[in-house]
Amino acid sequence: MACLLHLLLLVHLSTTRLQTTSSASKSASTTGMASSDAPCRGEVDIELLPFIRVYKNGSIERLLGTDTVPASFDATTGVASKDVTVDPATGLSVRLYLPPAAATAGGKKLPVLVYFHGGGFIVESATSPTYHRYLNALAARAGALAVSVEYRRVPEHPLPAAYDDCWAALAWAVACCAPGGPNPWLAAHGDASRVFLGGDSAGANAAHNVALRAAAAEGLPGAAITGVMLVHPYFWDASNAMSPELEVRIRREWRFMCARPDAEVDDPRLCPTGAGASARLAALPCRRVMVAVAGEDFLAPKGRAYYEALLASGWRGEAQLVDTPGQGHVFHLMQPDTEAAAQLLDGAADFISRS
Questions:
Q1: Residue 231: which region, alpha, beta or left (left: phi > 0; alpha: psi -120 to 50)?
Q2: Labelling 136: which of 58, 280, 296, 351 has CA 20 to 30 A away?
């Protein structure tokens, strides 16, 4: 199974590095500015294991998260899916998931979940087997129409491209929920007054930042963002210490994502609990927030700090912390058949369905 952001945590990050190297490339799928179906050859410019190599000739070699599956009808869950192009100019697309509840709702519209996948903004996809399985399961369990966003990735498109795509996908989904909207599934079954944002890891980071954008008077007419679900969020918080090696890693990752050598981890997009946090968090335009952390994930203290900062900000909604001991980063995606994964899925489904 394709692993996600910080998979190296599970092997104690023993082989992780971001550096200039001239080592020969390993066989892997390749995509990017000058990529091909064959393994890249030539001198490596940047290597961020286990995710990606960027070569001096401009080629990009993604080392994981490259498998895809087509949209389909899932016999296990009864969920139908299809891919829709949102913006041909940027390549933005979404995969829609229509649950069996659409046929039994008696004309009542369903909550809409706009979901952003993880992978450090570098790897993975809305069409990967990992996310296709998860969204089938979550849409069925929650009785929600899910919109899984295929945003542009780093390094071909540095941040804020992914944020812009996630915002555009949300605005598109809401517009489509209007009677006679351009997408038949959303027009017939999507409730624009019950919109949820969700994501894991980097996708949770995106969900938070899209919610803040909605709060900044950019508006979604007719829509109410009911809830924001942040699973193992990729955040920074200076109040919780981590090893010097991990601090160096996060700094390098963020600079790679932004394509800026001067990008700092106190950027509010990465560090939502930094200076001015109370005013920003208090303005979150939703009634409920769920923050899920995993006890063995080194990002867990960052997620807990976000939850505490939200409670202290004066925000008037309902905040929920789901803390799973003994588990690592995105365990529910990597080991979906475990009891812990089932419990987290149930919690996420309940968060959405009780709207």
A1: beta
A2: 296
The verdict on whether 148 is a catalytic residue reads no
Burial of 267: CB neighbours in 10 Å, binned 0-12, 13-18, 19+: middle
State the pLDDT at residue 41: 62
Catalytic residue among 132, 189, 297, 313: 297
Strands, sheet with 60-62, edge to edge from the N-terminal-most edge strand = 18-19, 44-48, 52-55, 60-62
Beta strands in the chain (DSSP E): 18-19, 44-48, 52-55, 60-62, 73-74, 79-87, 92-98, 110-116, 145-150, 190-200, 225-231, 288-294, 318-324
Cβ burial, residue 122 (10 Å; 0-12/13-18/19+): buried
What's the pLDDT tens digit per position in 134-176? Answer: 999 999 999 999 999 999 999 999 999 999 999 999 999 999 9
- Name residue 225's amino acid: I
Q: Could you give the CA distance from residue 212 to residue 303 in angstroms, rounded to a whole number?
A: 17
Instruction: Check residue 12 and give its pLDDT.
Output: 32
332 is catalytic: no
Residue 108 CA to residue 276 CA, distance in Å, equals: 41
Annotation says 83 is catalytic: no
**Contacts (Cβ under 8 Å, ≥6 apart) of 249:** 13, 16, 18
User: What secondary structure letter does DSSP report for 57?
Assistant: T
Rounded to 5°, angle at Cα 85 from 183 and 74? 75
Pick the catalytic residue: 132, 189, 208, 329?
A: 329
Q: Which residue carries 């980063």 as its tokens?
A: 329
Written as six digits, the tokens of 127 are: 């069409």
Marked catalytic residue, from 59, 125, 201, 313: 201
* CA distance linking residue 144 with residue 138, whole number of Å: 8
Statement: residue 60 has pLDDT above 50 = yes
The torsion of the CA quartet 246, 301, 134, 16, rounded to 10 degrees, works out to 10
